[in-house]
Amino acid sequence: MLGLTVESDRRVFVCQYTNCLHNGSAEVLEAFQAHPVPDVAVVATSCLGQCSTGPTVIVSPDETWYCRVKPTDVPTIVEQHLIGNKPVTALLHPRFHPKY
Ligand code: FES
To answer: If 20 and its partner were Cys, which of 53, 54, 88, 92 is the partner (CB 3.0–4.6 Å)?
Structure first.
């Protein structure tokens, strides 16, 4: 059995569907692509079902949902979460992370 750790085989899903695109998700995707992290793949996705609070970003397998992500938030997500393993609480989606 393969043992996967939280630090490896991560994926960052960035919605590229209509509502999120309207709110700048193409720039969010570009920002993640401009800040590559080893063993983390950045993936453009279709609608993630959270259109009113986009741009929507999910970090998997952590099951962390971020909402209203701006390109300027990306360096913080990269440094604090993808490298430092601490989710950026100010950007967590309250529907999935209600204590924030
Ligand atoms: S358009 Fe991005 S979550 Fe629906």
So the answer is: 54
Sheet containing strand 40-45, edge to edge, reads: 40-45, 10-15, 57-60, 64-66
**pTM for the structure as a whole:** 0.91
- At 11-43, the pLDDT tens digits run 999 999 999 999 999 999 999 999 999 999 999
Over residues 62-81, mean pLDDT: 98
Q: Please name each of the domains of the chain with its CATH number.
A: 10-91 (3.40.30.10)
Q: How far is the CA of 50 from the centre of ligand 1 (A)?
A: 5
77 close to ligand 1 (CB < 6 Angstrom): no
